[in-house]
Amino acid sequence: MALNYCPPCPQPELTYGLPGHTDPNLITVLLQDDVPGLQVLRNGKWLPVSPIPNTFIVNISDQMQVLSNDLYKSVLHWALVNCDKEGISIPTFYCPSPDAVIAPAKDLIDERHLAFYTNFTYAEYYQKFWNRGLAAEGCLDLFKASTA
Asked: Most buried of 28, 48, 70, 83, CB within 10 angstroms?
């Protein structure tokens, strides 16, 4: 769980709250306040996610993309600051244990549907993700299978 605080910024176009990234975990459940700022990338365009009172946002994250063998895609998102209001969001990250072996589900793989990812532990993934930092969108590309 984390707490993100974005103070008001008189020139929001000169900065961002969080750069564009995917989350390294399985799913993320987000509670946001009433200040817009979250955006998701869809079809090459950043789209705002309007806050809805008393709701959670559930994001598919990197490990779900691997487990589903790309049937579900990790959500590329970022947070922008607001020029007039402070913003607060509370993401809760659901993660596998560090020694869990992550791979596409066996039922999704056959002769016609090859695995897009190699097997790895969550600890390996998490380390590579943070070694790249949030300056990179994610690191699923480091775990692509050679046949993908």
From this structure: 28
